[in-house]
């Protein structure tokens, strides 16, 4: 049975049904009897979420959880502005983009203003998976190649073409025309060359190998903060890697499904944070705050040839209601200056985590940009042995303390923490407090295990 670092690192074990209370057990059993076996639940004790509001989720018993993981509702659960926009649009018109409508044009104009001048066209899809699938099609059409370079724990989606460029999904080995390279790991870096230089060298060697195998280069596809790899916002890494890919005639695809829409702060996009400019950008998750909407932004010089040869239509991509949701999200980010909030509140969370690190040697490294955090845990601070078991105990202790986070990385030993853009200073302080409580619990469990 294949395992996935992103799906199985924080997975409910169905063999533990007997440990659940009767009501939860009955619902899980009904779920297992109706849904496909590929689905996963979070946590040893799954959360039965029945309501969301702002930065909180609530379970069936009314218990409150501080949501520090949900990157979809990035401007808050049940955001009033988004709810109002969607409701109004549903009451007015819900149809596809082959009819002339002003909403999609107005939103596109505003969205493109957040990008470099060369990224001047947008196409709409339903999900980040579809966006990456489309970007791969465009890259192959433009270059005539098939060779793709990704990172070793990348996750880019669920379509057939996206699954084969997503090593972390546990689907098996990579096909011959795809090579995965290790991310720019600042914590485990060794040698005199910089982290960025080493990463670029890996990209260069990967494209050389693809050429040796007879596969012409098509694209370098990277999540611009290396989310599933363990969160590595390394200065200069994207610039260097993009240059390495372009030396082979490959296009650069920046997957912004996780780091995009002000998650990393005022830069707004992960690639912009590193002052790098890709050829294609893919969008998803937080774009509609829960309403399925996604997109691909491109250089018109690259996109025009594809459009002339390949007519494209997506029934729901770019339709009235999703676009209204996306427009409301963009309004919230811009008008409430949530990109600044991401930096300011992110600094508070980071400072609190650094204080915790002084008391808990299991915290080996803290990596962050804005409100995106990767906290790498270790079993031994000297050897830096991954603290996989400790991480599992910790995220479940967080769940019990009322804090929702998860893990990422190849050994599921890095905490993946994504507070909402609407977090307040009080939310940030509560996050750190509950993380500290959970660290104490996990540390006691670890000590008891050693004893």
Please tell me about this protein's structure.
The chain is of the alpha/beta class. It has two domains: 80-335, 3-Layer(aba) Sandwich (Aspartate Aminotransferase, domain 2); 338-450, Aspartate Aminotransferase, domain 1. The chain has helices at residues 5-8, 22-32, 80-90, 102-112, 128-143, 160-163, 195-212, 237-246, 270-273, 300-309, 320-335, 338-359, 388-401, 425-450; strands at residues 49-53, 56-59, 64-67, 121-125, 147-151, 178-181, 217-223, 251-255, 280-283, 294-298, 363-369, 372-380, 385-386, 403-404, 406-408, 414-417. It has a seven-stranded mixed beta sheet, sandwiched between helices. Strands 11, 12, 13, 15 and 16 form a five-stranded antiparallel beta sheet that branches. Strands 1-2-3-14 form a four-stranded mixed beta sheet. α6 links the parallel β5 (147-151) and β6. The chain is globular.
């Amino acid at each position: 049975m294949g395992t996935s670092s992103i799906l199985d690192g924080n997975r409910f074990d169905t063999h533990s049904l007997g440990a659940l209370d009767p009501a939860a057990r009955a619902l899980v059993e009904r779920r297992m009897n109706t849904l496909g076996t590929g689905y996963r639940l979070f946590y040893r004790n799954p959360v039965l979420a029945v309501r969301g509001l702002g930065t909180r989720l609530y379970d069936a018993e009314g218990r409150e959880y501080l949501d520090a993981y949900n990157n979809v509702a990035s401007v808050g659960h049940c955001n009033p502005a988004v709810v109002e926009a969607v409701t109004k649009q549903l009451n007015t018109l819900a149809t596809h983009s082959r009819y002339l409508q002003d909403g999609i044009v107005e939103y596109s104009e505003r969205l493109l203003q957040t990008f470099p001048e060369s990224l001047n066209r947008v196409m709409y899809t339903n999900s980040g998976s579809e966006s990456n699938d489309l970007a791969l099609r465009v890259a192959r059409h433009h270059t005539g190649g098939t060779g793709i370079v990704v990172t070793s724990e990348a996750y880019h989606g669920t379509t057939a073409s996206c699954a084969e460029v997503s090593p972390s999904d546990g689907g098996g080995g990579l096909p011959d025309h795809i090579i995965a390279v290790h991310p720019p790991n600042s914590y485990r870096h060794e040698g005199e060359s910089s982290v960025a230089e080493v990463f670029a060298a890996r990209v260069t060697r990967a494209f050389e190998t693809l050429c040796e195998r007879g596969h012409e280069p098509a694209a370098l596809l990277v999540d611009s903060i290396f989310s599933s790899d363990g969160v590595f916002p390394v200065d200069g890494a994207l610039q260097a890697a993009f240059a390495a890919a372009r030396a082979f005639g490959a296009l650069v695809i920046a997957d912004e499904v996780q780091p995009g829409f002000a998650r990393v702060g005022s830069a707004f996009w992960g690639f912009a944070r590193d002052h790098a400019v890709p050829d294609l950008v893919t969008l998803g998750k937080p774009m509609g705050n829960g309403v399925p909407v996604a997109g691909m932004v491109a250089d018109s010089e690259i996109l025009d040839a594809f459009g002339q040869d390949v007519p494209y239509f997506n029934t729901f991509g770019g339709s009235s209601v999703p676009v209204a949701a996306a427009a409301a999200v963009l309004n919230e980010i811009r008008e409430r200056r949530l990109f600044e909030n991401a930096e300011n509140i992110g600094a508070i969370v980071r400072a609190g985590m650094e204080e915790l690190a002084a008391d808990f040697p299991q915290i080996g490294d803290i990596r962050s940009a804005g409100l995106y955090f990767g906290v790498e845990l270790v079993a031994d601070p000297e050897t830096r042995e991954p603290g996989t078991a400790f991480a599992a105990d910790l995220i479940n202790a967080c769940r019990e303390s009322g804090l929702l986070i998860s893990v990422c990385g190849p050994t599921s030993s890095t905490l993946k923490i994504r507070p909402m853009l609407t977090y307040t200073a009080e939310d940030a302080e509560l996050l750190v407090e509950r993380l500290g409580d959970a660290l104490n619990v996990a540390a006691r469990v670890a000590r008891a295990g050693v004893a």
